Amino acid sequence: MSERKATVASSSGLHARPASLFAAAAGELDVEVTIAMDGAPAEDAMDASSILSLMTLGAEHGSVVVLRAEGDGADAALDSLVAMLETDLDAL
Asked: Is 15 labeled as catalytic in the residue annotation?
């Protein structure tokens, strides 16, 4: 299983527009990706392609989250999602 940490750069955190953009990108991938707050147990991870899960995660600007995926293409998928999270999606 591949894992990456990312710091949420969007000024509103993972809410509304940033959550929508991130969920859409995660949903287009060929691997299932989970997301959790850094330090949370792995079993608490949520579906990264679910906007509802992202908004209930409570990730604010500056929060560190953990992304996990398994299978072919997991590393590339996580790298692309980390790049998204570390971009201010509110500014797009």
From this structure: yes
Which tens digits make up the pLDDT trace of 36-90?
999 999 899 999 999 999 999 999 999 999 999 999 999 999 999 999 999 999 8
| DSSP-derived secondary structure for 2-59 | EEEEEE--STT-SSHHHHHHHHHHHHTSSS-EEEEETTS-GGG-EETT-HHHHHHHT-
pTM higher than 0.70, yes or no?
yes
Single-letter amino acid code for the residue at 88: D
Q: How far apart are CA 36 and CA 58, in angstroms?
A: 10
Residue among 15, 35, 45, 85 flagged as catalytic: 15
